[in-house]
Design brief:
With 411 residues, the protein is mainly alpha-helical. 62% of the residues lie in helices and 4% in strands. It has helices spanning 13-16, 20-42, 47-72, 74-78, 84-88, 100-116, 121-146, 178-185, 210-219, 223-243, 249-268, 272-282, 287-296, 305-326, 333-349, 364-386, 406-410; strands at residues 4-7, 17-19, 196-199, 204-207.
Length: 411
């Protein structure tokens, strides 16, 4: 699990992190567009139209996936925020749901191709459909690195501790991961009391967040003592300045220094590192002991559902490419994507544990997949019964001939 692929030096902390999911999404977009442009060239389509469609798909795909996530988790993830409007646009905090992308992108691309590019909608959607499956396959690797979209618990029930993996490819995510926290909340995992943080107003115990421990380790175990020493020194300097008189710049400077040191010390308990420091003192343990204990506990083995979907999406991509080159009727590649991926998504959701069953006993992705499956079947029916085999708007694209150079004219 590597949510941050690397950091850019000399930048602020909130801007320095380069997220693994964002890197994989970028790779998926660029490689998917390149593959679609190659298909366009081979089929004598206009690669510029495909490139424009790719950028439209990128914008609409991210916007639609984010919109679906916000609507799905508004009550639990956004309504409780101090500023829900800003939280909507904080994509770096995570939160995209795949189906929202195609549901927005497909109609927008249809409008662009029909009314702006004035090209065959069926032909160009056929060209771009395999890249949709390819992009999904690559971005699911980003999900795996990010630790989201995890699978259900996968343990050998013959093992008395139920910690041994049922399959050799099962994975265990590190302490503090979303999978581990959910397993604790579901009663699938137990943790020692030293790793349980009590929320005082409600008395609820949660796993001590890993980012808190990382912040405390980054600041060091003696940070609170250093703040106390700094305040004591500032207080002594203020007393000395006070004895010399309360007027003049020396006293005002000492007073401001003492106020700043007192504010830093009083607010330390509300910081992540301060909460960990208080937690360590309550449990009579050092920060190193706490960090070592946290490194031991991981999630129970789970299905790598993200990689399962990568494999199935690559298979769908391969099938769609073959279908594209051997098809006799325009417009059938995208509906076949809807049919194949809908079946695949329903099966994958059955072994995932991150999505709640909040739509009639199904996850929201399963419910949408049922609708997209029917839409794909209806789409194929209309194409085979109501549309000509070859789109009448298909016009082979030919690159304009280059004008002769001055040297060639002289000859």
């Amino acid at each position: 699990m590597y949510p941050t692929m690397f950091k850019i030096p000399y930048l602020p902390e909130w801007l320095a992190d380069i997220k693994s999911y964002g890197v994989m999404m970028t790779i998926a977009f660029l490689s998917g567009i390149w593959m679609a442009c190659r298909r366009a060239d081979r089929s004598k389509a206009n690669a510029d139209i495909v490139l424009n469609a790719g950028f439209i798909a990128l914008i609409c795909g991210v916007a639609g996936a984010r919109a679906m996530f916000v609507l799905h988790y508004w009550d639990t993830r956004f309504a409780t925020q101090s500023n829900p409007f800003l939280a909507i646009f904080d994509i770096r905090a995570g939160g995209l749901e795949f189906w929202g992308g195609p549901l927005l992108t497909i109609p927008v691309l249809g409008i662009y191709l029909r009314y702006i590019a004035k090209a065959s909608v069926r032909w160009y959607l056929d060209i771009t459909a395999p890249s949709l499956a390819w992009g999904l396959a690559i971005t699911r690797i980003g999900c795996f690195l990010n630790g989201c979209c995890w699978g259900a618990v996968c343990v050998d029930h013959k093992d008395p501790t139920e910690l041994k993996a049922q399959y050799p490819w099962a994975v265990r995510f590190p302490y503090g991961s979303a999978a581990m926290v959910q397993q604790y909340r579901f009663g699938q995992l137990t943790l020692p009391k030293e790793l349980i943080y009590l929320i005082e107003p409600v008395g609820e115990g949660i796993p001590l967040p890993a980012e808190w421990i990382q912040a405390a380790v980054h600041e060091g175990p003696d940070h609170r003592r250093q703040l106390e020493q700094r305040y004591q020194q500032a207080f002594n300097d203020l007393k000395a300045a006070h004895s010399a008189g309360t007027e003049g710049p020396a006293y005002q400077a000492a007073k401001e220094k003492e106020q700043a040191a007192r504010a830093a010390l009083s607010s330390y308990s509300e910081t992540m590192a301060g909460r960990v420091d208080l937690h360590c003192r309550r449990n009579t343990m050092t920060l190193d002991e706490l960090a070592q204990l946290a490194s031991i506990y991981r999630s129970r083995p789970v299905h790598p559902a993200q990689l399962y979907e990568t494999i199935s999406a690559l298979l769908i991509c391969w099938l769609l490419i073959k279908l594209f080159y051997y098809r006799r009727r325009h417009g059938i590649v995208l509906p076949w994507f809807l049919i194949l991926y809908s079946i695949s998504r329903v099966l994958h959701e059955a072994i995932r544990q991150d999505n709640p069953l909040d739509v009639g006993g199904l996850t929201i992705s399963q419910a949408i997949s049922a609708g997209t499956f029917l839409a794909g079947v209806l789409w194929l029916y209309i194409i085979y019964t109501r549309m000509p085999m070859v789109s009448p708007r298909v016009v082979p694209f030919e690159y304009p001939e280059e004008p002769p150079t001055a040297t060639a004219r002289k000859r």
